[in-house]
Amino acid sequence: MLMQSSVLFSSKPAWVKAQYSTSPVDTNPMAATVPGPGPKWAQKTITLPPHRRGCHLVTSQILKEIRPDLSEFKCGLAHLFLQHTSASLTINENYDSDVRDDTETFLNKIVPEGRSAPWKHTLEGPDDMPAHIKSSMFGCALTVPITDGKLNMGTWQGIWLCEHRDAPTARKVVVTLNGI
Amino acid sequence: MLMQSSVLFSSKPAWVKAQYSTSPVDTNPMAATVPGPGPKWAQKTITLPPHRRGCHLVTSQILKEIRPDLSEFKCGLAHLFLQHTSASLTINENYDSDVRDDTETFLNKIVPEGRSAPWKHTLEGPDDMPAHIKSSMFGCALTVPITDGKLNMGTWQGIWLCEHRDAPTARKVVVTLNGI
Amino acid sequence: MLMQSSVLFSSKPAWVKAQYSTSPVDTNPMAATVPGPGPKWAQKTITLPPHRRGCHLVTSQILKEIRPDLSEFKCGLAHLFLQHTSASLTINENYDSDVRDDTETFLNKIVPEGRSAPWKHTLEGPDDMPAHIKSSMFGCALTVPITDGKLNMGTWQGIWLCEHRDAPTARKVVVTLNGI
Q1: pTM for the full predicted model
Q2: Rounded Cα distance, B113 and B115, in Å
Q3: Which of the residues A86, A102, B63, C175 has the least number of beta carbons within 10 Å of its own beta carbon?
């Protein structure tokens, strides 16, 4: 076989490295002894059920959809892309629901809504323009490292779906996994 | 040939999957019948012409520069990186220009400018420090999934360039495409 | 050998392109003459020493950890992921420290702290809930293009670590490099 497989170099801190060489087989003595996988791509669209206005921890909902595929990646990146402009994805504290409630309080405090608000775009309701602004503040996409088949987040990190509209709506997320 | 090509697995929802195997040819019966492309990288720097202070929909300007190359990717990620610290890139509503105007109104409302502002960094003008803050609020980079040769955004999503300086300036964006 | 190596197409602006073909060797005349590297992945966790509350330029600290590996990539993406929920990573001005101080002033101005603050989550101190909010405002991850072995940032761009807690803490960053 002609592709060189994953090689591990140790250092402090250690890099996990993989290169897919184009060396001809006769200059590639490791190939026969260390097969290993090549680069992989996986992509699908998942749907998160409607959530009430506010911030919600959705790590487990997302992992339920992608875990079997995620487990095939030793090293890589997971990209989550929310296909909407009135909700957002962010990574924050995964334990105390008060943190999610306080974040919603903050967003409502700095983005005025209703009569006092200066918005021109009001056709879709008083909560619509504030929702667009909040979506750009937190963003609609996340990229998380994959290590040994898992999302390599910190102990206290979780994935939040922030629903900025009053009317709960199902939300689509395009998940793209890339790695080795 | 020794590389295994794109394989499609169906499920609900379906994953699009591709793996480049290092299996020796004799264990790779599909290879001869399903060649298909391997992983690809493409990168270039594009220049967006000067835009007045405010939020601007630039999806079509960007697609004009990258569409032919984008169309070569069945599955992947497109990364857009604005090389500036007084403008930003965000994804938001692509239809009503009032949404862009209201977003500019919001940014000017929460980031004070002029005499009332507490900034120390004023050498480059009263709009400069607020521009830096707005740039970090919305960010200077976007990653968008590529599916079947197109940016896989939602129906109402578009790419915005937010120009935070008073003096319109051409802005450089490094575009990196990666996929299969 | 069966893999086709990096090919450069010139245009205005020029794309740097690379494709790893699955074409059988007899249809791949370039292979023997243009070997070149295949796709590569490298990942490690680095630790940034404790920084006082505020915004700090950490480009050189990060490059010190990754430069030798970064130099192996002709074209790719560098992903930095902060494994914490009370600090953030952002890209902004790399020259005048007043810009970092003014940004910290802004964050403290819009996220109330102490008696006047409406937060429910106060067990970990008055600076904790504001820190979580600031972390989602600026985000905990960055993706930067790699070109010719270097981070391809603009002249005035630098990587900032924003420490939102009063008590300085060491912060972990998972760095993932992917490219050719």
Answers
A1: 0.88
A2: 7
A3: B63
